[in-house]
From TrEMBL, chain A:
Residues 6-233 form the ABC transporter domain. It comes from Paeniroseomonas aquatica. One of its GO terms (molecular function) is ATP binding. It comes from the Bacteria. This is ABC transporter ATP-binding protein. It holds the Pfam family BCA_ABC_TP_C. Keywords: ATP-binding, Nucleotide-binding, Transport. InterPro entries: AAA+_ATPase (IPR003593), ABC_AA/LPS_Transport (IPR051120), ABC_transporter-like_ATP-bd (IPR003439), BCA_ABC_TP_C (IPR032823), P-loop_NTPase (IPR027417). CDD domains: ABC_Mj1267_LivG_branched (cd03219).
Automatic annotation (TrEMBL), chain B:
This is Branched-chain amino acid ABC transporter permease. It comes from Paeniroseomonas aquatica. It is a multi-pass membrane protein. The keyword Transcription does not apply. Keywords: Cell membrane, Membrane, Signal, Transmembrane, Transmembrane helix. Residues 1-22 form the signal peptide. CDD domains: TM_PBP1_LivM_like. It is found in: Cell membrane.
Length: 236, 320
């Protein structure tokens, strides 16, 4: 049996006396798109931060395709094949869009930057400084920076934040296509339930730093605790 | 023409302008002023390189300038130990090497904290220059006797305004071209990316401390090259050369000219020196007037004087 793409065991993160993560276990199957949902303050972004090496965990371990990456920093995790995007657009504002993709590709020895520019409709902006592009273009650039390579596992922290409903769904469809075509395993944190239910094969629900439920979109929609804690009656 | 080709062509044209300027300006005070302006323009360039590539503001670059001057002076003062042709580049390399080591620590600090750190380090060097009397001559300074010839040129060439203007001009153009090539290189792109968003660069797989330390070292080396020219021209270096006010002047030059372009700090140095000479004739409080000018430039031209063409192009584009 092949190793899980991402295996987290007992992840904990404390801020002083506050436990943001309380022994979280997570198994991502290679190639799946997993949704991570939960109310504000549930610990979703903290979990992504600990998985990606942005924040140190207070306990637990992380393995990427069997390799222990618990003690590695962000750059080393990227080399191991783990990439991420950020809740707030995180690009290089003054640099041309194409140059940013080249920079990202060069570091991991990738050659897919021009194709990615095309696939994310950014080729026409290759020579334009990112700060002069529209917000939607910047969000796609953010995604492109994370996808170049491609990485083996991609952590996306609210990639559709700030986009219109139409833009969000278009981005979700594009993301699904790109991830499948490249065989990338994705952990998607998203508040837009339409996006999550549209593209995720399985969903993990976090509440108060612990896993509340896990299952297919259908199971999660019907899960009474999830409906009570997060989805409300609208999901039914 | 490629970017590197354009830089080379521009540098050649600028280098050729040096002799023309020297021929047009009568020998004397003005040419001496221009020679000094070129030397300090190199210091301003070093401050600009750090600001442009690393996004860092230094209040301590006089320390690198002064260290270059002192090391060159000490090397020239011990001709049996080292030939001048080795002592001068070694002074620059030694300062760059120390800056690299120091950079591995200080570039981890950002914003105002970095500025204060450089101020503190600069003033520590000032104190060291004052106290280490046996090496630096203390507050009396270090008088340097040049050997008869350096790089095949008579020593007098370095100490006459006509000679030093040309040498400093060519050095300034060469160093500016080097900085421009760096900015266009892959390494330059990486350091700009780190300047823009260090965290994102790390998550793309880049280590960020080494590139920033390398820029700090390059910037220090450029400042030291200015210091070497300073001691060659003046035959003297004192702790005043290392004082924070010299760092402040270099920063004013860089900000006046603007740090978004490589040539901005050079233009800023030219404006600073020419204005200073004019204002000194008008009032003792020339520094206050210069301060007002700096405030006006910062308010109306945040990118400095070198940002003016871009601003005009944008306005012209908006009207068209």
């Amino acid at each position: 049996m092949s190793a899980p793409a991402l295996l987290a065991r007992g992840l904990a993160r404390h801020y002083g006396g506050v436990a943001a993560l309380r022994g979280v276990d997570l198994d991502l199957v290679p190639g799946e798109i997993r949704g991570l949902i939960g109310p504000n303050g549930a610990g979703k972004s903290t979990l992504v931060d600990v998985l990606s090496g942005r924040a140190p965990g207070s306990g637990g371990s992380v393995r990427l395709f069997g390799q222990d990456i618990t003690g590695l920093g962000p750059a080393a995790r990227r080399h191991a094949g783990l990439a991420r995007s950020f809740q707030r657009t995180s690009i290089f504002p003054a640099l041309p869009v194409g140059a940013q993709l080249d920079l990202a590709a060069r570091r991991v020895g990738a050659t897919d930057a021009p194709r990615l520019l095309d696939e994310l409709d950014l080729a026409r902006l290759a020579a334009v400084p990112a700060e002069q592009t529209a917000y939607g273009d910047q969000r796609r650039l953010d995604l492109a920076l994370a996808l170049v390579g491609p990485p083996r596992v991609l952590l996306l922290d609210e990639p559709a934040a700030g986009l219109t409903a139409e833009e969000s769904l278009a981005l979700a469809d594009r993301l699904r296509e790109l991830a499948r075509a490249r065989g990338v395993t994705v952990l998607l944190v998203e508040h837009d339930m339409e996006v999550v239910f549209r593209i995720c094969e399985r969903i993990t629900v976090l509440e108060l730093g612990a896993i509340l439920a896990e299952g297919t979109p259908q199971e999660i929609r019907r899960h009474p605790e999830v409906v009570r804690a997060y989805l409300g009656s609208a999901a039914a | 023409m490629s970017g590197a080709g354009r830089i080379a062509a521009g540098a050649l044209a600028a280098a050729a302008a040096g002799p023309a300027i020297a021929a047009l300006v009568p020998p004397g005070v003005l040419l001496s002023l221009l020679a000094q302006a070129c030397i300090y323009a190199i210091l301003a360039l070093s401050v600009g390189v750090l600001a442009r590539q690393n996004g860092m503001v230094s209040f301590g670059h006089a320390a690198m300038f002064g260290a270059g001057a002192y090391l060159a002076g000490i090397g020239l003062g011990a001709p049996g130990l080292l030939p001048a042709e080795a002592a001068l580049p070694l002074a620059v390399l030694a300062v760059a090497a120390v800056c690299f080591g120091l950079g591995l620590i200080v570039v981890r600090v950002h914003g105002i904290a970095f500025a204060m750190l450089t101020l503190a380090l600069g003033q520590a060097c000032f104190e060291a220059a004052n106290k280490a009397r046996g090496v630096t001559g203390g507050a009396d300074g270090l008088t340097v006797a040049l050997p008869r010839e350096i790089f095949g040129l008579p020593a007098a060439t370095f100490q006459r305004a006509e000679g030093m203007f040309l040498i400093a001009w060519l050095a300034m153009v060469a160093l500016a071209a080097l900085a421009a090539l760096l900015a266009r290189s892959r390494f330059g792109l990486l350091t700009e990316a780190i300047r823009e968003n260090e965290e994102r660069a790390r998550f793309l797989g880049y280590g960020t401390v080494l590139p920033r330390a390398a820029v700090f070292a390059l910037s220090g080396g450029i400042a030291a090259a200015g210091g070497v020219l300073y001691v060659l021209y003046n035959g003297f270096v004192s702790p005043e050369t290392v004082h924070w006010s010299v760092s402040g002047s270099a920063l004013i030059m860089a900000l006046l000219g603007g740090t978004r372009t490589v040539w901005g700090p050079l233009a800023g140095a030219a404006v600073y020196f020419l204005l200073r000479e004019q204002l000194v004739e008008v009032t003792e409080r020339w520094l206050g007037l210069l301060g007002i000018l700096l405030v006006l430039v910062m308010v109306f031209l945040p990118d400095g004087l070198s940002g003016l063409p871009r601003r005009l192009r944008r306005r012209h584009g908006a009207e068209a």
